[in-house]
């Protein structure tokens, strides 16, 4: 989302009736203290839920307008409600106008429900990233207008190409062996990630610490004492020193596997991720979202507790509410490990994306139309008798 979207689709050119933001405009007009920020940095947008969670000291509730009407809010206790609005992945799926119109409809439903409950509220409407970016044009002395624009665009492409080359070099350098825990001579737990990081809230600011260099890499041997594994339970303990001023720090992955009668197979779950430091334990639950068949490994591009969270603090009073964990390109296997390589990975991303569903439905519709057309053609019947133009004409006498 960008400020240009409001200009283009908000009826700013005398066509107010075509605006896709009637509910949003009405809310701003009726608000006693509206605030519009033309642009914000991406990290600020991504961290807004975490910041509000810290300020309100409550966990976010991810809801939709239909379930909001069933929730009874109390003005005496703070609540953090998060609504994910419709979005589009590409221009071939939905137009920007349709997407923004859908967003405004959801906003209208939510605001209507909040008014019926008569509770004070503050609403924030933002996006994770801008819909368009303007390349920074370098205005060099002595260059004409058209030539300056072309050279600036050329420099922008060169900078983007350089960033891409640096990213590929970094990715290539980031290939390393997974962490292995062995029970006797056999490997029973494997862990790999491109990035492991933790953050702690201190004095209203988040302090970050990157655990990746101490966990992976050539010549790095993380301490795994305290780890255990058997046929039904596995526990991987990564021991560190001097993490965010804590002398002893542990990152623990707790897994289990069991047989489920409905699917008639065994599944393993990452039950919890624990942080132990100075005699304190912070626990994140993960079993609801992190699971895979017992003979597979589990992989996910990003696992966090603050942005599209897959890890949830065990309770509102748990010390985990003061921590953030982030695992990038994460893969783990705690059972049925063969050798030092992961088994087939069960990815957290669903196989049927919206684009795939649209393609399948379109193909099915076209097949049905083609089948109907072939059926109609096969029902055509030719005449078996024809009139001979050289023969006598057929006369039909008329009698009264």
UniProtKB/TrEMBL annotation:
GO terms for biological process: regulation of cellular pH. It is found in: Membrane. The lineage of its organism: Eukaryota, Metazoa, Chordata, Craniata, Vertebrata. One of its GO terms (molecular function) is ATPase activator activity. GO terms for cellular component: bounding membrane of organelle; cytoplasmic vesicle membrane; endomembrane system; proton-transporting V-type ATPase complex. The keyword Glycoprotein does not apply. Keywords: Membrane, Transmembrane, Transmembrane helix. The chain crosses the membrane at residues 356-375. It is a single-pass membrane protein. Its main location: membrane. This is V-type proton ATPase subunit S1. Residues 350-388 form the V-type proton ATPase subunit S1/VOA1 transmembrane domain. It comes from Collichthys lucidus. Residues 186-335 form the V-type proton ATPase subunit S1 luminal domain. The keyword tRNA processing does not apply. Pfam families: Ac45-VOA1_TM, VAS1_LD. Belongs to the vacuolar ATPase subunit S1 family.
